[in-house]
Amino acid sequence: MITADNLTKAYGSQLVLNINHLEIPKGQSFGLVGNNGAGKTTFFSLLLDLIQPSSGKIVNNEVEVSASEDWKPFTSSFIDESFLIGYLTPEEYFYFIGDLRGRNRADVDALLAQFEDFFHGEILGQKKYLRDLSKGNQKKAGIVASFIGNPEVVILDEPFANLDPTTQIRLKAIIKELAASEGVTVLVSSHDLIHVTEVCERIVVLNKGEVVKDIQTSAETLKELETFFGG
Amino acid sequence: MFKHFIRLQWKSFFRSSSFGKGIALKILMIFFGLYMLAALVITGSGIYFVLQELFPDQSPMWTLNQYLVYWILMEMFFRYFLQKLPVMDIKPFLIVPIHKSKITHYILGRSGVSIYNLFAIFFFLPFAIVLLFKGYAALNVLLWLLSIFAIVLCINYVNFLINKSDKALFVIIGLILTFYALDYFQIVPIKEFFGPTFHGLYAYPLAFLAPIGLAFIVYWLNYRFLRNRLFLDDSLKTKKQEAKSSDLAWTRRFGDIAPFLQLDLKLIWRNKRTKAQVFISLLFVFYGLIFYTQDIYANMMPMFAFLGIFMTGIFLANFGQFIPAWDSAYYSMMMSQNIPLRKYLDSKAGLISVSVVVMFLLTIPYVYFGWEALAINFGSALYNLGVNIPVILYFGSFNKKRIELDKSPFGNMQGTSGTQFLIMLPVLGAPILIFTIFHFIFSVEVAVAVLSIMGIVGFMFKNKLLDAITEQYRKKKYGMIAGFKEKNS
C-alpha cells in the first residue's frame, strides 16, 4: 500500500529523516515509535505531502504523493489540533469533512452513532466550538473525523496522548477493529510503548531519522522495546 | 511590589512577539502611531479656531462642552469593542505570595494608563493650552482639564463594569441615536441641556471634585467587583461563547462550493477580526461624504475613481489581502484533505464578488452628487469584480504569515508583510492610473467605459485566470504550510 524509497529530509545540513526502503502492506496496522526528534511526524508529514522530501519518494497506493493529489480521497489523517477548525462546532466540522469526502449528513450521523461510547457525551450537542473544547476532547473529535468517508489509509500522530484512560482503552479497540475487519491500513505513532505493542501488528523504531528496528509484534516485543529505549 | 509589576510589564512589552517583528513593519507602526498622535494634537489645538469659525456667536469652550456628552457616549461605544481588562495576564500571580488586593489594584491601575486614555490627553491638553493663550482663566481651565481626565477615567472603569453584557452596548447605541434624533429634530435640545453641566466644570472651579469623586467611586466598584472574583472559574475564565450550530442550508444552491462558502461565512461571523472587518467595510460607505461634499474635489475625477475603487472594493482589499492566511490555523488539514483547491478559491471569489455588489448598491445614493459619481462607481465595481478579484487572489499565494483568528482586531498587524503593501499598488493604483489617463486624453465617459470593459473582459476569462491562480497556490503550498505553522510571526 505505502512504499517509501530512498526517502530523506534535510534541513540545511541536518538530516532529520533517512529511510532507505520501507513498505507497509495493505491492511496492516503499523506503529511508529521513537524519541522526540526521531522523525515520526516528519515521516507522516511527507506521507501527507505537507513537506517536500529532499530526495526519494513515497508512493501511496501507486500514487506518488508529491506528484499527484489522487491519494487524497482514500487517505485521511489527524496529526494535531491544527487539523481542527476552531470556530466550528464538532458537528459542523464532521459535516464539513463529510462534504469533502462525499458523505451526506445521514452518512456522517450514522458513523458518529457508532462512536457514541468513545465521545462519552462530551463532544456532540455541547454548544461549544472546537476551540473551546479541552485538548483531549479536541483530539477525540479529530480522530473520529479521520474515520469519515471509509478511508483506506488512516494516519494518526500520537493519538493516545492527552486522552483519559477510558478513552485510551476504547481507542485501542477502535483501531484494532478498523485494521482487522475492513482492510484499512492504520499508521499510528506513539510514545507509549504499551499502547503501540497492543494495537499494532508491526512496529518500526525510528532513531535520529533512521529505521533501527522493524518488528512483527509478539509477546516479547514490549520487552525488546523497553530494553532498547532503556539503553 | 508595584515595582515588580512595572518591570514585568516593561518586559512583556519589549519581548512581545509583535515587537520583534520585521524592521519595516516596526517603522511603519511607529509612523502610524506618530501620525495618530500628531493628528490628535493638531485637532486638539485647531478645534478652538474651527469652533470659533463655525459658531462665531458663542465661545468655543461653550460649544465644545455642548458636544462632550456625545464624545463620552462615542468613547464608551468604541471602548466596548476595543478595551478589555487584561485579567488573563495575572494568572501566574495568583499562586505566588502577593495579596489579591494588590493584584487587583495593579490591573485596575494599569488600565488607568492605557493608550485609550492617552488619546484624550493628547486631544484636550493642546486645546487647554490654546485656551490659556486666548486668555481664559488659568485656574478654571486647569481644573476643567482635570475634570476631563477624571471623566476619561470614569469612562475607562465604567467600561469594565458594563463590558460583560451586550445589553449595555445596546443602551449606549440607543442613547446616542435618541440624543442625536432629539437634537436633530429639535424636540429636546440635548446639547443645550448638557452643555451647561460640562461648562459648569469650567465656570465653578470647585465642581471638579464631582468627576474626581465619581472616578473614585467607579474605581472602588470595580475593585470590589474584581477582588471577589479573582478565581480561575470566575472573572479569570476566558469567556466561552455558546456555540450556535447553523447549517446555512441556503448555501446549498451554490453547488460544489457550498461547503467552502459555509466555512467562509462561519469564519467571518465567528471570529472577532473578520467580523470587525465586515463592519469597518460597511462604515467605509460613508467615506465618500468626506470628498463629494467638498467643492475642491468636485471636478477632480481621479479622486472619484479612487473613491469608486476604494468604496466598492474595501472588503475585497481588507479580506482578500489575507487570503488564504485566514485559514492558516488549519491550513495543513486543508492541504491533506480531499479538497479541490479550485473550489476553495471559487468560494472566496464568490464571497468577495457579493461584497463588491453590495458595496456598489450602498454607494448608489451618491448619485445625488452628480451622475459621474454613480457611473464611476459602477465602472469601478465592474473593474473590481473582473480584474481585482483575480489579482488579489493571485497575490494571496504569497502570504506566508499566520493569522490567529481569535486575537483582537484592533491594531492587529498579524499576517501583515511586505506582500500587503505590494498588493495595494495594482489593486488601487492601476485602475486609478488607467482612469486618469483616459480621462485626461478623452473624457469621463471613455474612462468609465475602459474600466468597465476591463472588468467584463476579466470576468469572461475568470475560469482561465482562476485555473492559473490555483496552479500558483499548488506550487506555493509547502512554503505556505511552513509559514502558517510559525506562530509569533
UniProtKB/TrEMBL annotation, chain A:
Stated name of the protein: ABC-2 type transport system ATP-binding protein
Entry keywords, A to Z: ATP-binding, Nucleotide-binding, Transport
UniProt xrefs under InterPro entries: AAA+_ATPase, ABC_transporter-like_ATP-bd, ABC_transporter-like_CS, ABC_Transporter_VariousFunc, P-loop_NTPase
Annotated signal sequence range: none
PANTHER family for the chain: ABC TRANSPORTER ATP-BINDING PROTEIN ALBC-RELATED
Gene3D superfamilies: P-loop containing nucleotide triphosphate hydrolases
SUPFAM superfamilies referenced in this protein's UniProt entry, alphabetically: P-loop containing nucleoside triphosphate hydrolases (SSF52540)
Lineage: Bacteria, Pseudomonadati, Bacteroidota, Flavobacteriia, Flavobacteriales
PROSITE patterns in the record: ABC_TRANSPORTER_1 (PS00211), ABC_TRANSPORTER_2 (PS50893)
Pfam families, A to Z: ABC_tran
ABC transporter domain mapped to chain residues: 2-227
UniProt superkingdom: Bacteria
An MF annotation (GO) of this entry: ATP binding
SMART domains (alphabetical): AAA
From TrEMBL, chain B:
Transmembrane regions listed in the UniProt entry: 23-51, 63-82, 115-136, 142-162, 169-190, 202-221, 276-292, 304-326, 347-369, 381-398, 419-441, 447-466
Superkingdom of origin organism: Bacteria
Entry keyword annotation includes Membrane: yes
Transmembrane keyword on record: yes
Protein's name in the database: ABC-2 type transport system permease protein
Coiled coil: none
Pfam family, one: DUF5687
Keywords carried by this UniProt record: Membrane, Transmembrane, Transmembrane helix
